Amino acid sequence: MSDQNLETMSIDPNVDPYGYLGMVHNSDGSITRLQEPLVPVDTSNDLSHLVVTKDITINSSKNTWARIILPRELLHSTTSTSKLPLVIYFHGGGFIVATVDSPSFQGLYASIASEIPAIVVSIEYRQAPEHRLPAAYDDCMEALHWIKNKPNELLSNHADFSKCFLMGTSAGGNVVYHVGLRAAESWDNLKPLEIKGLILNQPFFGGNERTQSEVRLSNDKVLPPIISDIMWDLGLPKGADRDHEYSNPMVGIESNPNLLDQVKLLGWKMLVTGCDGDPLIDRQVDLVKVLKELDVQVEGSFTQGFYHGSEIIDPLKAKEFSLLVKELIRHF
Q: Could you give the residue numbers annotated as active site?
């Protein structure tokens, strides 16, 4: 899908940012959700026939749940007894929109599951501003403990718990970073789940001071800075600004130089992806640079062109990303 297809998104985010997000901003600071934001999805290469899905409740009191996605051929094979790597996926949406069930994510799930191949478990976490950060991190940590207890036979029969990877797109990439830090500190309590890597796909980070890419792409039609600002305003703890450690990872690293020590000790590998059509790319590149200076095993994969979230819109970009992840996973 070319950039021209994005013109199907009829609301200009720079003119009507709340309308673009499918909500109304009320005078008391609250929001009213009208609909899920329209994200154009290219279905010309539908992969849904290649996978089987099953939805499972995690915590009914919080309305958190997960979708298990696995290659269809795995269930029909009469010869293969090997288990597949487990990819625990956190969806994007700036912490305030989108769900596991959003149509835009289904093609990426199917691509990851079929191309690698792998078992994918996509986690539904609570949204802000009704549930501000760290609610999403708390829910996703709870999901890791839920998964390790093997509540479903699809996981216990087909997933290799010793080859687990945390993956997320946009806000989900932010979740991977922060939940990964938590999981590294409590790795022993997560056994038999053994995390091997953290995959941050176009991760959503911010800061008070604009980066050069944010200035250059201030009128971006997908994720302009004005939209990111709203997402952080609604998602961060009340009273916090964009230099909170949840938004700006540099703040956490500067205040705690040993923050990544456990990640290094465990030998986890990190992959950070991005593209220069995304206003967030400077923050992603800077994170990779700092992680390398800290001797974290990290690889940055940054491409020319495209836009934020291209992997969930364009099937070809989804396949490219899946093959990149496959290359990382095959070393384990």
A: 170, 278, 308
